[in-house]
What we know:
It is built from 18 helices and 25 strands. Strands 17, 18, 19, 20, 21, 22, 23, 24 and 25 form a nine-stranded mixed β-sheet that branches. An eight-stranded parallel β-barrel has the order 1-2-3-4-5-6-7-8, surrounded by six helices. Strands 14-15-13-9-12-11-10-16 form an eight-stranded mixed β-sheet. By secondary structure, the chain is of the alpha/beta class. It starts with a strand and ends with a helix. Helix 4 packs parallel to helix 5 and helix 9 packs across helix 10.
Amino acid sequence: MRTAIATVSLSGTLTEKLTAASRAGFDGVEIFENDLLASRLAPEEVRERCADLGLSIDLYQPMRDMEAVPEEEFSRNLRRARHKFEVMRRLGADTVLVCSSVHAAAVDDDALAARQLSQLADLAEEFGIRVAYEALAWGRHVSTYDRAWRIVEAADHPALGTCLDSFHILSRGSDPKAIADIPGEKIFFLQLADAPLLAMDVLQWSRHYRCFPGQGGFDVAGLVRHVLRAGYDGPLSLEVFNDVFRQAEAGPAAVDAHRSLLVLQESLGSVELPGPVVPTGVAFAELVTPDAEPVSEVLGALGFARTARHRSKPVDLWEQGEARVLVNTGPAVRREGTGLAAIGLESPDPAGAARRAEALLAPVLPRRRATTDAPLDAVAAPDGTELFFCATGRPELPDWRRDFEDVAHVSHVADTAYVAAEPGVRRIDHLALVQPWHQFDEAALFHRSVLGLAAQESVDVADPYGLLRSRAVANGDGSVRIVLCVGAAPRDDTVHAQHIALATDDVVAAARRFLAAGGRLLPIPANYYDDLAARFEFADGELETYRELGILYDRDAHGEFRHCYTRTVGRVFFELVQRDGGHRGYGAQNAPVRLAAQHLTGG
């Protein structure tokens, strides 16, 4: 199906918005009137610009407060409409959006509304224009799509049809089933938006919290199925009002928008994409750093051993159990200091995973490699994290570890920790990635659609200086868990840092060994443990051990969760995690305490 986006959904000038829409792959646009009024381009120039970019102008919008008004007011409306239609003719737009009236003088009279809309359609027809009538969810009298359709049906004018908007329909809880009874040729336009499920004034909800399909809680796909069943053959067009999107860079936002429509069409069966290849584990986490010593000291204290070095790059491999961490000190490392730059994901079909990612507009990353290096497919996540699709230890596929050669001489302590340490780290439990403030919803959709991970509900966590939003994505058995978060103070890199959580069978023993090796754990306030004693019952001495070591505790219906944190190195820290009985959480109950402790200690 053809795709379009309203210019109001993107930031920037009209020219920047059109360019972004074209580069993202859209077929057309809705021109929002304010964008045209603020542009230095004449309507004819906008028309030419769209043609050069391969964009059709599918809708001009909005025209407000036209119908069910006193005759004197309606006469003024027709004069206004004639001017708009002249502009549309110059623009090359043949459909106008008319929203149901919110005018104080509008009356509750469907017959009058039908008659006046018919007169408006008469005028539009002189210009070769169609009128698409839409029920605003907060319309003064007409606020539901079925009532808007009854008015259009009563008017019975060939140049008058209806515009269906998923937000206006679903935000009111209207049943979209009756859409299938509207003749497809009378559905002149379809506008799509998702939204988080909020209990608030619908106008404010619409103006500030709309998002792209798949990023909210509405069943947008279900609504579209009814529209297609009716016989609609126009574009799928996005109209999203969102404070964050309107401040984000237009190019990435447009790509995210188009990706959402590709995923939507895939769910409808109208587009065939390479199927999702769900990752089956974490092959490695790669840290970049200008100075390997601080992070190496932490890894060593955690029980990791430096086991191998890349044959052609300054990259060391540290291992313990099935957990692998790469430390990269190459010249292209981030200036911010130590950070989590890449994740290797075990994939049953690395090439298929890369095809899926590319089809969903994920940037494929060029990789400089020697002729002997393993060919690894990699794409960029919205936050810039590199994702490598790996097949570790599978002889039929290239193994990234062949790029490394064993380190002949490792320290005795580290070597012993790697070979025989008990209890130690078994694997990477999860990874926490801090997202740019404007890409949180985009990241959740990316990891769900591109990687095939299931997303949990978004969680708000109290930070001493605001709220931190967090959302986890994971595969079915929990062997891949990624926590996406965006902080209240995005410039505070020390606190809102990325982290690597390491699974252990005995967090107490692992914490003691870390401290004995010279590591520093994050100190937790005593008040936390006083509260913990009130919330849970513990065995004798258990709580005192947690207090001594800074171990936090949580429990749910599935089991128990014990965890503690290292001090931050650059922009990354480590977490030791013990899950018992199938606990599925990430310690969200304890996150405010951890955040406050990191603020107090500087990480």
